[in-house]
Amino acid sequence: MSRAQQPPGSPLDGDIGEPPKLTFPDGWTLSGAWQRAQRADAHLGPVDAAHFDVLLSRESGDWGSRHRVLFAIQNGALRAECDCKSFTHRDWCAHVAVLWWRWVREQLGVRDLDADDTHLSPPWWLAVHDQETS
C-alpha cells in the first residue's frame, strides 16, 4: 500500500465537509506587538532587497522612531530582524509584525535573496522558525 492511501476504517473515512471552526482558549489575546501592527498607522518602504524602514504611530498619536527591519527569504526560511529594543529582548516586535501583516494580505513584496524573486504573499514552502517549533 502506498503512503498516500488510507486503509478502510481509518479515521478519515466519512470525514467530508467543512473543517471544525477554529477556536482559541478562553482569555487568549493577541500580543501587544500584533495589536499595534494591526491598528497603528504605518509608513514603510524598502531600503534594499532585504531591508525595510518602518515607522509606526503610537497610541498617543505621535510617531515612534524609524526602525530598520531585515525581512527577506533566505535558504528557504524567512529572515526577520529589527533593530528595536523589543526585538532585542523578545525576538519579536510590532515592526516585524506589521510587515508580516501586510505580506499575508498581499500588500508587500518580499524578496527571496537566493532565487532573486519577489513574493507578494508567503509561498507555500516557506519555513517560519520560532522558539516553539525550533
Largest sheet: 4 strands, antiparallel
Order of helices and strands: HEEEEHHEE
Structural class: alpha+beta
> How would you sum up the global shape?
globular
What is the number of E strands?
Answer: 6
Number of helices: 3
Low-confidence stretches: none
Mean pLDDT rating: 83
Gyration radius, rounded = 19 Å
* First and last CA, distance: 33 Å
Q: Beta-strand level of the residues, as a percent range?
A: 15-25%
Q: What is the topology, as strand order, of the major beta sheet?
A: 1-2-3-4
Helix content: 10-25%
Note the main attributes of this structure:
134 residues, alpha+beta, 4-stranded antiparallel sheet, 3 helices, 6 strands, globular
Can you walk me through this structure?
The chain is of the alpha+beta class. It has a domain at 32-119. The chain is 19% helix and 23% strand. It has a four-stranded antiparallel β-sheet with strand order 1-2-3-4. A hairpin with a 2-residue loop joins β3 and β4. α1 crosses α3 (94-104). The chain is globular and about 50 Å long. The model has no long low-confidence stretch (mean pLDDT 83).
Summary, kept brief:
This protein has three helices and six strands; from the N terminus they run H-E-E-E-E-H-H-E-E.
Give the helices and strands, then pairings.
Blueprint: H1 32-39, E1 42-46, E2 51-56, E3 67-74, E4 77-82, H2 85-90, H3 94-104, E5 110-112, E6 117-119
Antiparallel strand pairs: 1-2, 2-3, 3-4, 5-6
Helix pairs in contact: 1-3
